[in-house]
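Q: Joint fold for the lines below.
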Amino acid sequence: DSGVTQTPKHLITATGQRVTLRCSPRSGDLSVYWYQQSLDQGLQFLIQYYNGEERAKGNILERFSAQQFPDLHSELNLSSLELGDSALYFCASSVENRASEQYFGPGTRLTVT
Amino acid sequence: AQSVAQPEDQVNVAEGNPLTVKCTYSVSGNPYLFWYVQYPNRGLQFLLKYITGDNLVKGSYGFEAEFNKSQTSFHLKKPSALVSDSALYFCAYTGGFKTIFGAGTRLFVKA
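A: Joint structure:
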């Protein structure tokens, strides 16, 4: 158990809908990262927050947004969902940037029908 | 552009034999390199990292990796493979505030 929790585990929704994925980092970790894992595109970095502030953006679509709250939990919002958004979404946390390893949650499997 | 490459989609090895999973990098400055493993239906787990210092890094579950600056490589190795090592392995680089993962290499260890 990495200490990172993600909810829900599974999510099935229809195209055009909006969903929110939630992540609680390990106790003491200030950085939260979001990744998308799909079969054809591997593991893609989406966005990183550090102590409530956005630190880095990767290949995150404009339909997606995220935030980190004062209690350090984070939410990833996906809107106007398309079939291609079906994937595993992982959250990870770390103590600090660059030199620190990341601890991954179990992921949320999103299926868009 | 910064990148991490895993040239092999799949590696097959017999149990008890040594294994190597390859990773090469193309980055500017001093690289921070990591290896992670992913078992089916699980999140990634950290194995080891290279930040600075000794080029041979030891990690979890008997794995080690050798940082080679002249060849820009960071290959993952284990002297004797176990069937339970079968999984998906990712090499990763952290630069600035971004983490870039390789495409992953699926390791099959046959009994």
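Q: Anything notable?
A: The radius of gyration of chain B is 13 Å. Chain B touches chain A through 22 residues (CB under 8 Å).
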